[in-house]
Design a protein that fits this description.
Layout (H helix, E strand, L loop, with lengths): L34 E6 L4 H11 L3 E6 L5 H11 L4 E4 L9 H11 L4 E6 L4 H8 L4 E5 L4 H12 L12 E6 L6 H12 L6 E6 L2 H10 L4 E6 L12 H12 L3 E5 L3 H11 L3 E4 L4 H12 L3
Parallel strand pairs: 1-2, 1-3, 3-4, 4-5, 6-7, 6-8, 8-9, 9-10
Helix pairs in contact: 2-3, 4-6, 8-9
């Protein structure tokens, strides 16, 4: 099965006016330019990506792979070169080859960071990437500034370097066999990969959450407000339980609900809940909110 292929529209990179050099805001310079291997098919996005990364100070080797021969080609590239970051994409390449590209990079890439760019989203693949050190996932169409920023972050985090921030312990409440909290945890792991290790557990009762939080430091509580998950006594409902967690432990408390926010947001705010998100989640909007709660820049 082939994946959705995203092609950048014409004019994706603005040309400077005659006589005026293009103005590109670059992050602080590294000791040397990051060496990047860009893997695409025969797609116009290859030139767009290469140009954008070059403007941000990266040395880019781009390769349009013929999927029939990519294992031998990649092994030869990794044997002769050392890359700081490898960008496997499904731009012009069937999505089915992406997991193999990632696996080969992890095995033979000499510790290179991995930034996967895909126009096709598959939950189990993204969850696996979230558990892979020094690996990020970016869904196409991707903002080129964001891609360049992630590449530089990976290049600045050598393999084996200790995390700059202490681990983030997250305790989540959700019904058994419900995927909302586990998916939220996978998203947190992926979002802060390379910046902060995220450790989490999902529990389906208030008693277990209180028991764990009583002997283990917890930095963030996430509760999925669903009729299937009962906080139990002595708490009247989920919001009362969330308020108790906030008052007792003083850590950020986030609630997720499929109900209209007008029905619960006022009570949640009064109980001290730090953020209340509507399901299905809009990750672009909640990302900055979580950054603020966790003091991650």
């Amino acid at each position: 099965m082939t994946a959705k292929i995203y092609r950048f529209p014409k004019g994706a990179t603005k040309q400077a006016a005659p006589g005026k050099p293009a103005k590109v805001e670059k992050p602080a310079a590294l000791a040397r330019p990051p060496r990047v291997l860009l893997i695409t098919g025969k797609d116009e996005a290859r030139e767009v990506f290469s140009e954008a990364l070059g403007k941000y100070g990266c040395e880019v080797t781009h390769y349009g792979l013929d999927a029939r021969y990519y294992p031998a080609i990649l092994l030869d590239l990794f044997e002769k070169n050392r890359f700081d970051v490898v960008i496997p994409t499904n731009l012009g390449i069937p999505f089915v080859y992406l997991p193999d590209l990632v696996a080969l990079t992890r095995k033979f890439g000499k510790g290179a960071g991995i930034a996967v760019v895909s126009g096709w989203v598959q939950d189990d693949f993204i969850a696996e990437l979230a558990r892979t050190p020094r690996t990020v996932f970016l869904q196409a169409p991707v903002r080129l500034e964001e891609l360049a920023s992630k590449v530089r972050e990976l290049a600045e985090t050598p393999a084996g370097r200790k995390e700059q921030l202490p681990p983030l312990n997250v305790l989540l409440g959700d019904a058994k066999d419900n995927l909302v909290a586990p998916c939220f945890l996978d998203w947190l792991v992926a979002r802060y990969a390379g910046l902060r290790e995220v450790r989490g557990a999902v529990q389906d009762s208030a008693e277990q959450i209180l028991l764990i939080a009583g002997y283990k430091p917890v930095h963030l509580f996430v509760l999925n407000l669903t009729p299937l998950w009962s906080p139990g006594t002595p708490f009247a409902d989920h919001i009362a339980f969330a308020g108790h967690l906030k008052k007792r432990f003083g850590k950020p408390v986030v609630m997720i609900s499929g109900f209209p926010q007008t029905e619960i947001k006022g009570r949640a705010d009064a109980a001290g809940v730090d953020a209340c998100f509507r399901h299905p989640l809009d990750l672009e909007k909640i990302g900055p909110v979580m950054d603020g709660l966790l003091n991650v820049k």
